[in-house]
Write a structure and sequence with these properties.
This protein has 222 residues and is an alpha+beta fold. It has 4 helices and 13 strands. Strand 7 and strand 8 form a beta hairpin. The relative contact order is 0.18.
């Protein structure tokens, strides 16, 4: 398959592997022979394809202190448990990124959010970026869309969330909910989604680009 790019680069791609999620394509691995037409030089082109994904930074204010809701789960590639934002891939959502974010938050934390309660942080990026975050563009095509939720809750809600076991067990999702003070968040995890969301949130707040916080979330599932 020969593809032409506006940058004057062409390539032939050969599929090397496919991982299926039931009847749906999950991950792809392919190798591309990339040639810069101007210089005639070959550019490395081994790609892990996983497509779009969403994540949500959930900030809950309680008794004057700001908390963030995280998930903790084992991540085999790095061999450790990782504190992360609630996140997931776009499966059959037909590009409905907000709906996917709401679904992932509920599956992984038990919190139900309404569609209009989420702020798309990556949409605040310059249009030239595609308004997406690329976690590892050197080897993966993943496009990450980061959302923000802010709400006020009672202290009992924070306590009820702490340590909840969630996730879709039939898919091997063994997730524990962890709630930490926002002021400590940047030092508690090396998750790129967390660190990027902090940067976007803080800059958007500084520039006055964020709407007022919404009401308390629906925690009836907890």
């Amino acid at each position: 398959m020969l593809l032409q790019r506006r940058s004057g680069i062409s390539h032939e791609a050969s599929l090397q592997g496919v991982d299926m999620f039931g009847r749906s394509v999950g991950f792809l691995k392919f190798k591309a022979e990339i040639i810069d037409k101007k210089t005639g030089k070959m550019i490395p082109g081994i790609v892990f394809g996983r497509g779009q994904a969403v994540a949500a930074l959930i900030l809950l204010e309680s008794e004057g202190e700001l908390f963030v809701v995280l998930t903790e789960q084992a991540r085999v590639p790095v061999g450790r448990f990782i504190l992360e934002l609630p996140a997931g891939m776009l499966d059959d959502d037909k590009g409905d990124v907000i709906g996917a974010a709401v679904r992932e938050v509920e599956e992984e934390t038990g919190i139900h959010l309404n569609l209009d309660e989420l702020v798309n942080l990556t949409a605040l990026l310059d249009p030239s970026t595609g308004c997406r975050m690329f976690p590892s563009p050197g080897g993966c095509d993943e496009e990450l869309i980061l959302f923000l939720y802010r709400g006020h809750v009672k202290k009992e809600v924070i306590e009820a969330l702490q340590g909840q076991e969630t996730g879709l067990r039939e898919r091997g999702e063994l997730i524990k909910v962890t709630v930490v003070p926002y002021k400590k968040l940047w030092r508690l995890t090396a998750d790129a989604k967390v660190l990027a969301s902090i940067a976007l949130y803080e800059m958007a707040k500084r520039e006055g680009l964020l709407p007022p916080p919404k009401n308390a979330p629906d925690l009836s599932a907890i």
